[in-house]
Each structure stands twice: as C-alpha cells, then as structure tokens.
Amino acid sequence: MAITLEDDRILAPLKELILLTCGFSLEKGREQTLIAGLGTRMALRGIDCSKAYHALLVRDRDELNSLVELLTVNETYFFREPEQLNLVTDKLLAEILAERDGRPVRILSAGCSTGEEPFSIAMMLRERYGAESERFFAITGVDIDSSVVAGARRGVYGKGSFRGMDPGMLQRYFDPSGPGEFRVRDSIRKLVSFEVVNLLETCYPQGMQLSDVIFYRNVSIYFPQEVQREIFVKLAGMLNQGGYLVVGAAETLHHDIGVLSLVQRDALFCYRNSPVPALEERRGARRNEPVPVRPGVAAAAPPASLSAGLRPGAGPGRRPSEPPPKVSAPPPRELRALFDTALELACHGRTDQSLGMLDDIIGRDACFAKAFTLKGSLLLSAGRFDEAGAVCDGILSRDPLCLEAYLMLGVIARHKGNQEAGLVRFREALYLDASCWLAHFYTAEILFAQADAKRARSGYGAALRILGNGSPRAHGQAYFPLSFNAEQFMVICRHKLSLLKENG
C-alpha cells in the first residue's frame, strides 16, 4: 500500500514502536525517511497492510532491525572533526596512560557507523605509539545497525570515506581492494573490535564496560531530549573515574545536565567523570512543594488503610490518641555526603557498591529515611522483591506517609501477580499525593488489563498531563524510580488512550 505524510493514523503507531525500542524520534520532517523504509520492507515481505506489518515488527526483532537500518544516516568519513581526535590522542590519552598500572586504556566509539571513527583513532595511536599501541589500547565500536557493523568488520572503504585524508596515511594503513576501494590493514584492525548494540538496551556488553574515553559524536541528534539524557547517563556510568566522554561540538551544551563535569581543554569542551556537586543540591523542585489543584477536581478520598481514625490535624494512618511521630535529627554531614555518593553510584548503575554503602549508612544511623528508600528502590530494580518489600514495610512502620514505599509495594504486588493489592497501594499513594504520575500510570495499567476503560482513560490522561507539565521529579517520588524516560511513558499513555478510544 502507498503511504503518505497525511496518513498519521498509520504512521503514529509505527513511530511509537521505533521510539520505544530504539529511541529514534521520527518527527519534524523525518517521516519521509520512515515512509521510504516502510515501502521497501513491506514490499520485500509481501505485506500491503500497515497493521499487519506493525504486528510483524512487534514479534520479529530481525525485521525491526532491518527497518531501522533504512532509517539511520550513516554519513561519516576518516578523521572527522580532527581537533577533537588530536586533543584525545595527543593529550587526554597520554594523561590516562601515565596513570595506568599495565592494563590497556579502553576507548569506546558509540554509534560508530561504518567504522571510520574507531579506525581513525587506531591509526592516530599507531602513529604516536607504533606497535606498542596494540598493548596500550583497546578500541570498541558499537552501532545499532547490523549492516554497517558488518561493513566495519570488513574494513573496505570507497573514495567518499577518504575526503581530505593525508595520502601518506592512506598509503601506510590501507591496501587496494578493488576498483576505487581500499581495505584497512591488519595492524590497525587488530586494535578495534565491533559489536551491534542498541544504546537503549538495559545491559551493555562487556566490551563497553570500564571505558576510559567514550566518543559519542553526532549520534544524539536522532533522539528526543529525554532519550538523549537516558543514554548519556548510561554511557557516563561506563566511564572509569577520571575518564572522558566526547560529544560532537554542536551537541555539547545539550548534555550539560550535571551527570559529568564539563571541562575545557585548549579551545575544546568535553565531559569528565570527576567529582560534581551532590545530586541533592541539584535536584531542583522538591516533593513537598505545593501542588496547584486544578479547578473542578476534587481531592481523592483516603483509602481505608490510611483513613482509619483520621481526624482534622491528624496524619493518615495515625489514630487520634497517638502522638505525632517524632522528627529525627538530621544526619551528620559525613553521612549526608556518603549518601550523596551512594545515590551517584546508583544513578550510574553500580548497584552493589551503592547497596554496600547504604547498609553502612543504615548501620550507623537507623533513622536515615532516605537511605532506606534508596535501598528499597535498588532492591526492587534488581528483582529482589521480598527484600525490597521488607524494606518498605520497615519504612512505613516509621513513616506511614512515605510515598515511595507505597509505590514500591504496589509494583512488587504487580510483579507477584496480585493486581488488587497493587491497586490498593497505588490508591494509597494517590491519597498522599494526587500528582504522583507513577501511581496514576500503574493504576491505569491495572484497570486497562481489567477492561475498566473509563477509569483507565482517566488514569492515563492524568499521568500524561502531569508528565507534560514539567519536571516529573516535582510530581511524586524522590528516589523511585531512579531514572526513567518521560517521553516513552508519554508515548505509552497516548498509545493506550488511542486503543481505548478505538474500542469505544
């Protein structure tokens, strides 16, 4: 079937699927690339119905990859943006190498396309360090497009890849391989390995771990802002202490989000994994800021488990005869600093290290509420549901108003298949904070599964409004979840609302 830009109902679910699985945004004029790719793949598979092709993409990851390969622009060449390459190879790598204890310096090219970038780095290192470069350095190139990774592994290039390249470099590091083509010599190929990697995946392969320098240049232009942030945070978590992350010159300020330190070397900027201000100081809007109530929207009635014995002036879950809970003295500065470090580790995916630090904090101060909340979130994210539930129960025994504890218990109940218990917990969270987008979202998910269309629409709509109203951190939880992709949650809400509308 012929698809045009006007066929928004056909394109929308396909764009959503690609955004959710690959992070690619195909808005703002890029739909024509999608239409051309769809035409090619649907013709090859003998499919003339967009819904049937969408269903194929959902169940067949190979077909999805084949479509994505048609959507990426693999425009690159050797020694692109040479000032950055010279800075890294002449200065930054020399500094890192001087502090090494014998292990190779690990360099990652994220979004390496057909391999010109990692091979350029390998050639420059060979120029500076000779044959010793094989012992000093290990370079990994990754890309989502399996066809370009296969091309990088072959290492054969046409004249378009050599624009402006020094003829001497071409002579030293390439052999003729056919009319107008040249193949990278083995002395350079041995320095570089390649892997197919989707940067949105939860786990990255071993070759990406513990990197000293990451090149992430001219890749994030494909992604919407929230996906840019998510991938940048994950890549930052791959960096060794003191390591550098290099983005394209036009992308630099887009990634100045407080995760890594923006540093200037010579006339260039890059990011470094060095101490940055504590996350608590950068957090911005606080959970206890007043939330405006929309006209005409009544406050939710408290669930039974929170409203028992409630009287004016009494907090939820406390009987009139009970005294108000004691306010703990703030933890000493040393423990606050330790907690900030644990939180930083958690945000960088270093769960075991963070949990060990949190146990140390809790052992020294059993009233440090934030440490318990973060520990519960980490245990939940690791799938250790019973341990996370025990932590949440302990939190609520000390503070019956802890929003995160109710959220985590709701998620645990869902994972264990107890949807009704989950629904109760999310309603308790909404009673505590009517603007908690996660509680609205998960409530809607349960109601959607129960075919309660009216209330599911209400929940998805509320979550969508809250997420679209600014920083989601201002609308609910402080440490759960630690990271999320707001754009993808919004896409899911819109998709579910469209399904509910279609089904009446």
In short:
50% of the residues lie in helices and 10% in strands.
Q: Can you put this structure into words, describing what you see?
A:
- This protein is of the alpha/beta class.
- Among the domains are: 62 residues, no CATH class; 196 residues, Rossmann fold, CATH 3.40.50.150.
- Helix content is 50%, strand content 10%.
- The protein has 22 helices and ten strands.
- The strands form two sheets. Strands 6-2-1-7-8-10-9 form a seven-stranded mixed β-sheet. It has a three-stranded antiparallel β-sheet with strand order 3-5-4.
- The longest helix has 17 residues.
Estimate the helix proportion, in percent: 40-55%
CATH superfamily of the domain at 82-277: Vaccinia Virus protein VP39
Average pLDDT figure? 80
Spatial order of the strands in the main sheet?
6-2-1-7-8-10-9
Tell me what the CATH architecture of the domain at 82-277 is: 3-Layer(aba) Sandwich
The CATH topology annotation of the domain at 82-277 reads as: Rossmann fold
How widely separated are the two ends? 27 Å
Largest sheet: 7 strands, mixed
Structural class by secondary-structure content:
alpha/beta
CATH class of the domain at 82-277: Alpha Beta
Which shape, going by the Cα principal axes? flat
Number of helices: 22
> What's the number of extended β-strand segments?
10
Rounded to an integer in angstroms, the radius of gyration calculated over CA atoms is 26 Å
Low-confidence stretches: 276-302, 307-328, 471-476
What oligomerization state is this entry in? single chain
Strand percentage lies at 5-15%
